[in-house]
From TrEMBL, chain A:
Name of protein: ABC transporter ATP-binding protein
Organism classification: Bacteria, Bacillati, Actinomycetota, Actinomycetes, Kitasatosporales
Keyword ATP-binding appears in the UniProt entry: yes
Biased composition (Basic and acidic residues): 269-280
Residue ranges of domain ABC transporter in the record: 17-264
Keywords: ATP-binding, Nucleotide-binding, Transport
Region Disordered, residue ranges: 262-297
InterPro entries: AAA+_ATPase, ABC_transp_ATP-bind, ABC_transporter-like_ATP-bd, ABC_transporter-like_CS, Oligopep_ABC_C
A Pfam family: ABC_tran
UniProt cross-references to CDD domains, sorted A to Z: ABC_NikE_OppD_transporters
Entry annotated with the keyword Lipoprotein: no
Transmembrane domains' residue ranges: none
Domain of life: Bacteria
């Protein structure tokens, strides 16, 4: 597990990769050819520092994958800026991808099924100029396989994807990302397709890479418990807006936004056995995230929020920062009503 | 949402509380094989358990553990190459008859579908017919099992079923794609309950929806289950979810049930090393964080399962005999209540014997 270094240490050097106030609007057409704009991400910022893990948490459609793809420069930003090591990021290309690598959710479809591991990893090494001769390729592929705990490496080097399990494939995918020797990894739900019993090993592997090799990692997930396990900081997104962020224990143990609270209270927690779900007697409708072609004005959570007031419908609130670096965008704090969030128990939430 | 009981013609005979706790389903030594070119693959291997009326039985296991093969065998929805090659599924009807669902012919099985057994599948988009409005799909089911019912009655019943799961009755006019994912899944649950079944099999009904919706759907299932009294077999890989909803949990590994017991027991004192590994595979949300380790290795290839206990290659506590001896699922010490485990570490039934 990564050690919980104070946030201030990390901010001394510029972030390896940062998104500064980025937005992404997609233009789509419906069946009738009418144009619509999907406001996928609005004014999001995230900074990735050496050796640290930031988790981006939210439901599907919250914009977390879009934000990661802007960081990877798969999608150009609609506004805002991507910064690499303190400077405006160079255009997408080999030079950029040598610094920033993405790991996808589904290892079964992200690897070429026709080739052996030797080729899959060797090609990356050759293309990026890290290995030239056959002997160099073999030596480096073996070392990569050892780094991702695919041992004995000599056995795995000549396997094809179909001869491996999901966990092993995801390790190959991680090894392929490492082969370019990046400084930043962007993991888009890297464990959600894997079997439960092997997820932890992949999380531990990612944690070790950050700890020992100083990689910066963005970990995208909908599973807040795994975010807590792996990361140093958490950012919570809802319907394209970043609603809360900060050190993980602050955010998870004392959320400052009603949506974060709802998300945490909704996550299965075995320690809650016997209470919770079974005792929920009222038929409740907690609503669903909005359609992003016509999102609600102001804070997009307001239609589902038990604390919604006029300001919430009018404008998205500014950031309120708390003692330990935790921050939230919620009108409750702007109106001095922070205490209400703590007083309300989860059962009284919507 | 107001949720009134379904006051249909059959409500009088609907799962009565008098029968609650009586056996509903006795599965014994059920074996399901996949016929492949390279020989038979045992997906379920002599699986035995009893399900009581009104009980929620959780079935947890990784992909390839045989949980889906088991429920398609239970509901007789399996297709070749899957084949039930052994064992019995004894179903107790309300009026005291015993039916063997393995051998029952299709003609006698059909009236039992929806009225006795229903299933909720993982992907509601795939379960609904995309070119039919919801109301037509509800009518299909209701009319089939209650011939002579009027159109008004069907519409009224459809509206009530949808309202029961928190969907506005007007939504009956929608096509499936016009509903959100969470709504579709709830509509599917309403459809499964249309004829007040005794047993509802749920195959990962919430894996395709987000956690907030998952929790709402789960709370709704529990509420309906309490009110209508049906039994549930709930299949998932998410043990932490089962801990909150199940009366009992069965853990499957490589086609066999390796442990079965109450959630609290499995959580605080798992007996099978695999159960322990699975429990420890979920990081806590609030408890202090410690470094956790997954279960080493990968699930076995069922085309070539390891001899003896299928878990032994991944087991840290294996004994030399685990490689040869197949542990049987059996009752453990009396103080464990109704708890069964298949592990040589717990093979002593003698109350004084060392069992842990």
């Amino acid at each position: 597990m990564t050690t919980a270094a104070p946030t201030s240490d990390a901010t001394d050097e510029p972030a390896l990769l940062a998104a500064v106030d980025v937005s992404k609007h997609f233009t789509v057409r419906d069946q009738l050819g009418r144009k619509a704009t999907v406001r996928a991400v609005e004014h999001a910022s995230v900074a990735l520092h050496r050796g640290r893990v930031v988790a981006l948490v939210g439901e599907s459609g919250s914009g977390k994958t879009t934000l990661a793809r802007m960081l990877a420069q798969f999608h150009p930003v609609s506004s805002g800026e991507i910064r690499l090591a303190g400077h405006r990021a160079p255009p997408a290309g080999r030079g950029y991808f040598r610094q920033v690598q993405l790991i996808f959710q589904d290892p079964f479809s992200s690897l070429n099924t026709l080739h052996k591991v030797r080729h899959i990893l060797g090609r990356v090494l050759r293309v990026h100029g890290h290995a030239h001769t056959r002997a160099e390729v073999e030596e480096q592929v073996l070392s990569l396989l050892n780094r991702v705990n695919l041992t004995p490496a000599e056995e795995f080097i000549d396997k094809r994807p179909r001869e491996m399990s999901g966990g092993q494939l995801q390790r190959v995918a991680i090894a392929r990302a490492l082969a370019v020797r990046p400084t930043v990894l962007l993991g888009d739900e890297p464990i959600s397709m894997l079997d439960v019993s092997i997820r932890l090993d992949v999380l531990n592997l990612l944690a070790r890479l950050c700890d020992e090799e100083g990689l910066a990692l963005l970990y995208i997930t909908h599973d807040i418990a795994s975010a807590r396990y792996l990361c140093d900081e958490v950012q919570v997104m809802y319907a394209g807006q970043t609603v809360e962020g900060g050190p993980k224990e602050a955010v998870i143990q004392s959320p400052k936004h009603p949506y974060t609270r709802l998300l945490i209270d909704s996550s299965p927690d075995p320690d809650r056995t016997g209470r919770g779900l079974r005792d929920q007697d009222d038929a409740e409708d907690l609503g669903e995230p909005p359609n992003l072609t016509a999102p609600p004005d102001g804070c997009r959570f307001h239609p589902r929020c038990p604390f919604a007031m006029d300001d919430c419908r009018r404008a998205f609130p500014d950031r309120t920062t708390f003692a330990d670096g935790q921050w939230a965008h919620c009108w409750l704090h702007q109106h001095g009503r922070s205490a209400e969030l703590d007083r309300t128990t989860s059962k009284e939430l919507p | 949402m107001t949720a009134r009981p379904l006051d249909t013609a059959r409500s009088a005979s609907a799962p009565s509380s008098a029968l609650r706790g009586e056996p509903l389903l006795d599965v014994s030594r059920l074996t399901v094989e996949y016929v492949t070119e390279r020989g038979a693959v045992l997906a379920c291997n002599e699986v035995s358990f009893t399900l009581r009326r009104g009980e929620i039985l959780g079935l947890a296991g990784e992909s390839g553990s045989g949980k889906s093969s088991l429920i398609t065998a239970l509901t007789r929805l399996q297709r070749l190459p899957a084949l039930t090659t052994g064992g019995e599924i004894r179903y107790h009807t309300r009026d005291g008859h015993l039916l063997d669902l393995v051998t029952l012919d299709e003609r006698r099985l059909r009236p039992l579908r929806w009225t006795e057994l229903a299933i909720v599948l993982q992907s509601a988009m795939a379960a609904f017919n995309p070119v039919m409005r919801l109301k037509a799909q509800f009518a299909d089911v209701i009319v089939e099992h209650q011939p002579g019912i009027t159109g008004d009655e069907v519409a009224e019943r459809t509206g009530r079923l949808l309202r029961m799961v928190g969907i506005a009755p007007e939504r009956a006019h929608s096509y499936p794609h016009e509903l959100s994912g969470g709504m579709r899944q709830r509509a599917l649950i309403a459809l499964a309950l249309a004829c007040e079944p005794e047993l509802v099999v749920m195959d990962e009904p919430t894996t395709a929806v987000d956690v907030v919706m998952q929790r709402q759907i789960m709370a709704q299932i529990l509420r309906l289950q309490r009110r209508l009294g049906f039994a549930v077999v709930f299949v998932t890989h998410d043990l932490s979810l089962l801990m909150e909803i199940a009366d009992r949990i069965a853990i499957m590994y490589a086609g066999r049930i390796v442990e079965i017991g109450a959630p609290q027991q499995l959580y605080t004192d798992p007996l099978h090393p695999y159960t322990r590994g699975l429990r420890d595979a979920f990081p806590p949300l609030h408890a202090p964080l410690t470094k956790l380790a997954g279960i080493p290795g990968s699930p076995p290839d069922l085309r070539d399962p390891p001899p003896g206990c299928a878990f032994h290659p991944r087991c840290a506590q294996r004994l030399p005999e685990c490689e040869q001896v197949l542990p049987r699922l059996h009752q453990v010490l009396p103080q464990h209540g109704e708890r069964q485990v298949a592990c040589l570490l717990h093979d002593s039934i003698d109350p004084g014997g060392e069992a842990s």
